[in-house]
Amino acid sequence: LALQPVRKMKKLVTTGYKAIWDTLTTPNCKRIAITWIAFFFTTGITTGIYIQFFLNRLGMSWMGITAYIWIATILSTAVTPLLGRFMDRFGYRTTLLVAWGGVWWQPLLSVFCPDNAVHLWGLIPLPILIDAIAGGIFWPAVGIAQTNIVIAETPSETRAGFFAVLTAIGGVIGFITAALAGWLATSLGDDVHYNFAGLYLDNLRIPMVIGAVTRMIAGFLIFTIREPARQKGQVTSTEAFTAVWKILAGKPIGGRLR
């Protein structure tokens, strides 16, 4: 980054809270905001449960958790350029639908994983390995699609403010739901066990089930979002990733991204 020439910025337009609010209250931006906040709500339910479940129920070591993170991270890095090409071809909303279809059921892998599951290579049970692979592929797609929908839908003058509002509200919602899920698990206690239609449930698996069900329900909100119109001369994901690699290599970007 230090080797890149400084780009002269155009004169920034000063905007106030009213302009951001006006953007937020447009029909499609309102649907985007509701969907975004719903996603924070549903994912927050399982955020604080995963590591506790891996350690206390499955007996995974910290090396196993590190392996889980590494698998997801490597896959995420590998598939991100491909996800960009998929988005260029099929659109943001379609990408978000496919991605959410790949993440809503992931907590169920933990629910169905028995406490005495065999750890592959002594590190990680098979269902959790599948979780790491699916997470590494589909969660980057969720983030990229969400971000690009907001970029395409909002004017440049209020885009940063709109992002800030969504992130702030979503962060608060995610914190609240994570705290509530932790409270539920603690209140139920380690001695609480249920058998529901042959499915073994305990105080950590119950929030996982709730998280998966609410994720599935939240996914239907994606259908309410209208695909933003493509702007003339819009930079494709391939061009963007090429520019990023050039920046990392310390080379001039060139072309229309210069």
Quick synopsis:
By secondary structure, the protein is mostly helical.
What order do the helices and strands come in, and which of them pair?
Layout: H1 17-24, H2 27-47, H3 50-56, H4 62-90, H5 92-101, H6 106-111, E1 119-120, E2 124-125, H7 126-153, H8 156-188, E3 193-196, E4 199-202, H9 205-219, H10 237-248
Antiparallel strand pairs: 1-2, 3-4
Helix pairs in contact: 1-8, 2-7, 2-8, 2-9, 4-5, 4-7, 5-7
Describe this structure in words.
There is one protein chain. With 258 residues, this protein is mainly α. It has 10 helices and 4 strands. The chain has helices at residues 17-24, 27-47, 50-56, 62-90, 92-101, 106-111, 126-153, 156-188, 205-219, 237-248, and strands spanning 119-120, 124-125, 193-196, 199-202. The protein has a two-stranded antiparallel ribbon with strand order 1-2. A two-stranded antiparallel ribbon has the order 3-4. Strand 3 (193-196) and strand 4 form a beta hairpin. Helix 2 (27-47) runs antiparallel to helix 7 (126-153) and helix 2 (27-47) runs parallel beside helix 8. The longest helix is centred in the middle third of the chain and has 33 residues, at 156-188.
